[in-house]
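Milestone 3.1: sequence recovery, worked example.
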């Protein structure tokens, strides 16, 4: 239309000035011969960022922040509770879950190859050319396969998964769109999908992966769906710029709403009254809570609001064909939307929200790894924080993680021996086979712990390190044991969630309790108590499995305390 601004000003532009007149919703279509299809090929490129719906950045911020926090926290908790092994098991399970979905998409595509016509320059030259031109105009370069089929649930439907995009179009719709006079409407319908894909492709790929992961449990889709709906509005705005006419855009939406035969016959006053009612009522809003597409009637109102800012002449002409009462209802229902379009997108909000959620995830992760224990969120190291053994010159073997009492924070250091030193008394219970490798460690503040020694056995099949903790009484020792092995069960297995039990040997330590599992560093731990001596022992070896440590403890080897 003559009053339409140019596309460089981010407004609707008439790509077919030769025709001079566009179709008007509710009136007969103009003569198709008056349309020049060649003029549609000269298309200026569009910057999709300038056509983004004003609510899209904030809705993307919600989707991205929720995905970062929920997906990130889930992975952190999983890593903390089960270690790298649990994370690997989760990854394998996720692949097993996504694999069938990906396969289903490929099967669907294979079925379409045998039951529908794939759009190529040889099968549908007009549609193929239009799709190529629209994709080039919006700057979307990734492949999208278009199929035409006799009947579909929706006139046009887009399926996307793992980079596979399939656009399915109903045959009757295509048959009408390829007519010369309907080229702007075909451009609109194609561009609304390509524009949606383009704006989603602008997002950072890892964030898109996190968002897709959050959609797997569909109960959380209400956090993602608002952004998906906003991308549809963005696609409509890009499409309106592509086809160059608000009226043609409205007719294209009519085709999706009532079909090709009634697209020109819809009474727009009645339809816009309906759209205003849907916009105001809470039940239609609730119904689309989990939907990735907004109500079609809402898309009419968004286009009108967008045109009011981008092409006021075309919007004024459209409103002039409606009754004053209808216009009043539209303005009342779209007041907030109009303010959003006047304000424009708040792009900085998305960046700041993502940064804030990432920082919050980092703080939460620090708290989880600092204060929350493993093994169903209780780990051995929460009771026995890492400490260094005595100087390496007197301790053969590599440095190991040695236990320490609850609420401890300082690194253990060698303690001087005196004739009445509790550590010396504890060392007397170390097995003779590796007693010479044991060193006294200064016990940190903890309930009931009076002495600690660390040993480094060197015999075949021995663990890398064994630490012994002398408790003042059995109650404190048993409490520490229970906290350390929380989550391990008698019916479990050492190499998975952990296993526990009791023992009583004829010769050697005991009686007492035992447990085997992986610690937070994904290293094997075997822990046992001696109720006669009130000694708790922990064997650790990064190269062996918990089951191997279990077998060592129950072997004829002297494990102590003696």
């Amino acid at each position: 239309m003559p009053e339409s601004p140019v596309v460089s000003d981010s407004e609707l532009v008439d790509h077919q000035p030769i025709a001079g007149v566009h179709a008007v919703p509710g009136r007969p279509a103009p003569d198709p011969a008056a349309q020049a299809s060649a003029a549609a090929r000269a298309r200026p490129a569009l910057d999709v960022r300038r056509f983004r719906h004003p609510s899209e950045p904030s809705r993307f911020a919600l989707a991205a922040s929720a995905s970062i926090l929920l997906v990130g926290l889930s992975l952190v908790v999983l890593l903390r509770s089960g270690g790298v092994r649990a994370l690997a098991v989760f990854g394998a399970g996720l692949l097993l879950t996504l694999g069938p979905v990906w396969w289903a998409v490929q099967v669907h595509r294979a079925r379409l190859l045998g039951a529908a016509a794939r759009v190529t320059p040889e099968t549908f030259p007009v549609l193929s050319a239009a799709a190529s031109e629209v994709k080039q105009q919006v700057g979307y370069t990734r492949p999208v396969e278009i199929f035409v089929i006799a009947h579909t649930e929706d006139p046009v439907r887009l399926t996307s998964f793992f980079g596979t995009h399939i656009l399915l179009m109903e045959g009757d719709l295509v048959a009408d769109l390829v007519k010369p006079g309907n080229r702007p409407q075909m451009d609109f319908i194609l561009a609304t999908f390509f524009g949606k894909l383009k704006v989603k492709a602008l997002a950072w790929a890892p964030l898109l992966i996190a968002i897709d992961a959050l959609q797997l449990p569909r109960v959380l889709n209400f956090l993602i769906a608002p952004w998906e709906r906003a991308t549809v509005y963005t696609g409509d705005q890009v499409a309106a710029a592509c086809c160059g006419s608000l009226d043609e855009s409205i007719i294209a939406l009519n085709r999706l709403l009532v079909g090709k035969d009634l697209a020109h016959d819809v009474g727009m006053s009645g339809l816009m009254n309906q759209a205003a009612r849907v916009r105001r009522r809470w039940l239609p809003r609730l119904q689309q809570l989990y939907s990735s597409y907004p109500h079609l009637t809402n898309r009419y109102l968004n286009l009108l609001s967008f045109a009011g800012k981008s092409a006021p002449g075309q919007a004024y002409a459209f409103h002039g064909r409606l009754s004053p009462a209808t216009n009043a209802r539209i303005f009342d229902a779209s007041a907030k939307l109009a303010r959003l379009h006047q304000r424009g997108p708040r792009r900085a909000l998305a960046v700041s929200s993502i940064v804030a959620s990432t920082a919050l995830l980092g703080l939460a992760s620090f708290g989880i790894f600092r204060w929350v224990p493993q093994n169903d969120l209780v780990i051995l190291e929460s009771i026995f924080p890492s400490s260094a053994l005595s100087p390496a010159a007197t301790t053969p073997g590599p440095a190991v993680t040695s236990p320490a009492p609850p609420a401890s924070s300082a690194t253990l250091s060698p303690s001087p021996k005196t004739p009445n030193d509790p550590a010396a008394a504890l060392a007397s219970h170390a097995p003779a086979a590796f007693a010479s490798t044991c060193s006294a460690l200064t016990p940190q503040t903890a309930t009931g712990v009076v002495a600690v020694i660390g040993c480094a056995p060197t015999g075949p099949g021995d663990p890398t390190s064994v630490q012994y903790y002398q408790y003042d009484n059995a109650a404190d020792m048993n409490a520490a044991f229970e906290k350390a092995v929380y989550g391990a069960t008698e019916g479990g297995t050492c190499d998975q969630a952990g296993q526990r039990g009791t023992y009583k040997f004829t010769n050697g330590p005991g009686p007492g309790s035992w447990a085997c599992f992986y610690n937070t560093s994904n290293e094997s731990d075997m822990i046992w108590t001696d109720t006669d001596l009130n000694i708790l022992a922990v064997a650790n070896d990064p190269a062996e499995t918990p089951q191997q440590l279990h077998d060592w403890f129950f072997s004829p080897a002297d494990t102590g305390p003696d």
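The chain has a mean pLDDT of 80. The first strand starts at residue 117 and ends at 118.
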